């Protein structure tokens, strides 16, 4: 929820609202990630724009951005950008899936699968990229579940007893083409919606339209891609009968 621009907070209040430490706020400010506070006497006061920037920084961190990458992204946003503009930036960066990777052990994997998985089945889940091997701070080997929603799909695939090499090649094909489509569609949206919006000076009157377009294009794009793939498969089948 956006706060009013007139709201004034001390650095302690800002840190508390943003869920970070005062030390973190000062560190971000020293790196130029936050604009200077407004001074009242010798007291620095912060507002909704600072809170919105901290929210955006957290979103970028959750997406795996390094500090250098975050600095580069924020450099492209005017320092006097209002909270609503920063909220738009967050909306544009929102992930298309709520899935988050999580660390689990073998017992937890078996519990989620509903049965004890064989070493071969676990290896196939690793081949599919649904699981990754990691080492924790104590040196113990653990598993990272990259997508909880894909675990059931992966288990059904392992039951088909297909060669691991085939699964690896299929994974490569899917990732190659989906990455290419994602890049091209992103560039299409940027060229026709985002860049014109920025070039016109990020007018307030267009901000909600851009945010709505980004939100609504997510489910529509997925629906179009699924339908397009299904039609392409049908065409391949017809051509090879």
From TrEMBL:
Coiled coil: none
UniProt keyword DNA-binding present: yes
SMART domains noted in UniProt: HTH_MERR (SM00422)
Ranges of residues in domain HTH merR-type: 8-76
InterPro entries: DNA-bd_dom_put_sf, MerR-type_HTH_dom, MerR_fam
One Pfam assignment: MerR_1
Molecular-function GO term, any one: DNA-binding transcription factor activity
Record-linked Gene3D superfamilies: 1.10.1660.10
Keyword flag DNA-binding: yes
Keywords: DNA-binding
UniProt-recorded name of the protein: DNA-binding transcriptional regulator, MerR family
Organism of origin: Actinopolyspora xinjiangensis
